[in-house]
């Protein structure tokens, strides 16, 4: 026998296989190249070590059998993935020709055969060949699903809504089995596709969207997949599942996506720190339909590192997405205005809420959308109560957000007695070298029913005086800025200013 005729192959450290050198080299281009530079081991055999062989020892043994049988074994859907990747790695052209021919007939495979091959691709996730096969297999899977749905149409109305009890899954098998037994024929494939990894599911969903698959069914599958998979997924897997869910929902018809389910996704996303661009998509989806939200939806706890009670910045972004979403009807604007007013009243007592954030909430929606400022007045009153240390400027900025004409007679009367609204300090011109305190004192007017108009007239005059004082303060601030600019200009240049033309 020729020296070193036995080949010793170490496969990924899993198993060592002994082969006849002449037989295996007859078909493998890779081994021909390697053995040209190899020497015998101490045992007298040639030894080759593979650390990244696709499919491991099982795949290598399968390919070896083909070589020992003169490459005349049958390639079928159950072994084509392992054989193709192994043959590509080992450069066995005869086997590659058979695997490629088998893949050309993929459209004639049965659904279970395609699904099994996809599972095998998952096991070979480090192989680039497996990735290209997965794309072909996934395309075939979606095509078969579309044909199956078209051949046996089922009314979407028969399928359970994602908001129904059938979609409130727990981690036990009974709830999943309940769904399987209750769902219509249009959702028979939900459990079948659960075996796929998040990466393959993402590809699967993209292909479904491209083929214009029913958006309602895609939405149902997404929420089902998310809830079932979350039970056993790691943090990274949960993040990947959520990002896939949001990315897919974002391109679907908004009417097919249950609005309150988006807040469920939001609560999970906030705890997993998902990608910012994906988070932005979720916020846009919620914000564009903000008129459907409730106060409970918006009362999202602030992130752990923040001292605020509620996540105010999130609500500001929701409202921005709503206002940037195009032309809105008056009824939608009024709904959002009422919702924001309720939210403002809820967060006003928060001692950590900064005046600038509170003012942003007050001025978030156009004033034309508000028929009344009753809620705004109460919110400002609560805020001033919880923030006694505000400067006069900060207090004035908040009060400016109020519209006196949109307050009821009772609120006007209450404000006239409200000490938090009566004492607003302003500074007179600095050139006078003295500080003067301007105090607005609103005296209680006792009137009978016949003098009610007189009372309202007095209150109106008092309100206009307050407005003049605010304007005075603003002008004084502007004068200070002009003075500072003038001084810096005079120091920076000794040249005289040009004379005006007569």
Automatic annotation (TrEMBL):
Q: Name one Pfam family in it.
A: NPH3
Keyword terms = Ubl conjugation pathway
Involved pathway(s): Protein modification; protein ubiquitination
Question: One biological process GO term for this chain?
Answer: protein ubiquitination
InterPro entries, alphabetically?
Answer: NPH3/RPT2-like, NPH3_dom, SKP1/BTB/POZ_sf
Q: TM spans, by residue?
A: none
Q: Where do the NPH3 domain residues begin and end?
A: 187-436
Q: Which SUPFAM superfamilies match?
A: POZ domain
Q: Where is this region: Disordered?
A: 482-502
UniProt lists the family membership as follows: Belongs to the NPH3 family.
This protein is called what?
A: NPH3 domain-containing protein
Q: Which organism is it from?
A: Brassica campestris (Field mustard)
């Amino acid at each position: 026998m020729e020296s070193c005729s036995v080949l010793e192959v170490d496969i990924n450290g899993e198993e060592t296989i002994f082969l006849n050198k002449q037989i295996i080299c007859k078909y493998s281009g890779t081994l021909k190249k390697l053995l040209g530079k190899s020497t015998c081991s101490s045992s007298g055999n040639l030894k080759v070590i593979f650390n990244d062989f696709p499919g491991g020892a099982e795949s290598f043994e399968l390919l070896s059998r083909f070589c020992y049988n003169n490459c005349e074994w049958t390639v079928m859907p159950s072994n084509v993935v392992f054989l193709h990747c192994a043959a590509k790695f080992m450069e066995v052209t005869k086997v590659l020709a058979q695997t490629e021919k088998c893949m050309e007939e993929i459209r004639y495979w049965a659904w279970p055969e395609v699904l099994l091959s996809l599972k095998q691709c998952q096991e070979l996730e480090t192989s680039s060949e497996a990735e290209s096969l997965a794309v072909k297999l996934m395309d075939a899977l979606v095509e078969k699903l579309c044909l199956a749905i078209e051949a046996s149409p089922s009314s979407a109305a028969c399928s359970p809504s994602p908001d129904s009890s059938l979609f409130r899954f727990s981690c036990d098998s009974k709830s999943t089995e309940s769904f399987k037994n209750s769902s219509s024929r249009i959702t028979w494939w939900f459990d079948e596709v659960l075996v796929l990894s998040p990466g393959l599911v993402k590809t699967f969903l993209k292909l479904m969207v491209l083929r214009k698959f029913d958006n309602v069914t895609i939405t149902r599958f997404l929420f089902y997949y998310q809830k079932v998979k979350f039970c056993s997924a790691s943090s990274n897997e949960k993040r990947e599942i959520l990002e896939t869910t949001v990315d897919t929902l974002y391109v679907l018809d908004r009417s097919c996506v249950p609005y309150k389910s988006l807040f469920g996704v939001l609560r999970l996303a906030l705890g997993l720190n998902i990608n910012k661009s994906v988070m932005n998509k979720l916020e846009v989806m919620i914000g564009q339909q903000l008129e459907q939200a409730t106060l409970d939806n918006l009362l999202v706890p602030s992130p752990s590192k923040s001292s605020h009670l509620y996540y105010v910045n999130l609500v500001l972004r929701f409202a921005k997405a709503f206002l940037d979403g195009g032309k809105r009807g008056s009824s939608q604007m009024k709904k959002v205005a009422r919702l924001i007013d309720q939210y403002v009243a809820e967060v006003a007592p928060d001692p950590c809420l900064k005046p600038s954030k509170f003012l942003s909430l007050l001025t978030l929606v156009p004033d034309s959308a508000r028929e009344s400022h009753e809620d705004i007045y109460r919110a400002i009153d609560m805020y001033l109560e919880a923030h006694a240390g505000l400067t006069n400027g900060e207090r004035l900025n908040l009060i400016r957000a109020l519209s006196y004409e949109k307050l009821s007679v009772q609120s006007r009367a209450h404000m006239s007695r409200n000490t938090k609204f009566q004492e607003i300090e302003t500074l007179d011109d600095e050139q006078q070298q003295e500080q003067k305190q301007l105090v607005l004192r609103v005296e209680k007017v006792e009137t009978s029913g016949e003098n009610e108009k007189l009372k309202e007239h007095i209150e109106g005059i008092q309100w206009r005086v307050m407005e003049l004082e605010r304007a005075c303060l603003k002008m004084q601030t502007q004068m200070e800025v002009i003075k500072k600019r003038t001084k810096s200009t005079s120091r920076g240049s000794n040249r005289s200013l040009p004379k005006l033309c007569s």
